[in-house]
Amino acid sequence: MANFIDSIFSKLSSKNDSSVIGIDIGSSSIKVVQMRRKAGKAILETYGELALGPYAGIEVGRATKLGPDKIVTALNDVLKESNATTKSVALSIPMRQSLVAVIKMPQMQEKQLAQMIPIEARKYIPVPITEVSLDWFVIPKIDPEPDDYEGVPDGQHKMPQIEVLIVAIHNDVLQDFSTIISTSQLDASFFEIEMFSTVRAVIETGDNTPIMMCDFGAGATKVYMVERGIIRDSHVINKGSQDITLAIAQSIGVAVEFAERLKRNYGKNTREQDEQIKQIIDLNMSPILSEMNTVLVNFQKKYNKNVTKVYLVGGGALLTGLEAQAQQKLSIPVFYGDPFSKLETPAFLEGILKQQGLAFCTAIGVGLRKLHELG
User: Fold this and answer.
1) Is the domain defined by 19-244+279-374 classed in CATH 2.170.270.10?
2) pLDDT above 60 (res 42)
3) pTM for the whole structure
4) Distance between CA atoms of 204 and 331, rounded to whole angstroms?
5) Residue 144 in 3-state DSSP?
6) Strands, E assignment, 54-131
7) Residue 344 DSSP class
8) Exposure string over 78-105, b if 16+ CB within 10 A, otherwise e
9) What's residue 33's pLDDT?
10) Is 134 exposed, middle or buried (0-12, 13-18, 19+ CB in 10 A)?
11) Would you say residue 15 has pLDDT above 50?
């Protein structure tokens, strides 16, 4: 198997004190976190975030699609501004540039699976299989699922079914990321799809209950259903925090940049402004939360299991009141992710990092895997 979905949880050792940087190139900003290992612990050294909008000639907070050359410029800028000191990095790949699906296959030997999965994967991949890099992972089972023999006629020999997580990334995407790394003169031994990094950063080792993770980005909201540290399902909602900003700008008649500040300061603006913003937030969050609830209900019905909690992550989750709003809609406990808790950090930064950590989950998660690789 390749490097995309190896080692969901890091197990840190003290064999090497080298520093590494986790890099998350999102749709609206780049986040970097530099860490090192000492005495079996991951130590935060520095971190930084840089908006990508200005590199595309648009406002801060807007989602954009930059070419490799401009991403290199922005990446070098954020590394310089954050005083990063190492060239050893790990890089996440956005969900929008990958395909992840869970498929059912008859139980068979791994050698047979390796032959059959590319054939089966063609049903889910909208481009020729030769144009993508394909990886797969058999999802471990504890108890038989209700539909283990789904699709097998009664009276026939029933072959047990297994679930296989397949991951496909277009070769052109991998080439672009390789170009970014080489042009920036960085050293990256692997790329990892962002949701695996996020899970590693937030969920505690040993928490085997079904968990829902909601990653609020600028251009989209990603939902991951996780059990025993393994992603069982994923879903992308094509609405994000940018939609709220644009709606505020249009409704109130202000510039997008000012609307972004009003959104981030929600609860601290004038009473009249906050009343207007609340209406806009509720209007735009309602369909997102409804779709999240549908994913939740469908998962619970499919596997006949109750999801125990929801974690909110991503820069868009910093919106004031979102935790309570999500809990009301989903009817299960909702918490904010706290990825900086996986690192040893200065005590005086604890409050700031706990809040800002929502935006740095992916960068921290992929960095933790890089530390594990060094051991």
Assistant:
1) no
2) yes
3) 0.88
4) 22
5) coil
6) 88-93, 98-106
7) B
8) bbeebebebebbbbbbbbbbbbbebbeb
9) 97
10) middle
11) no
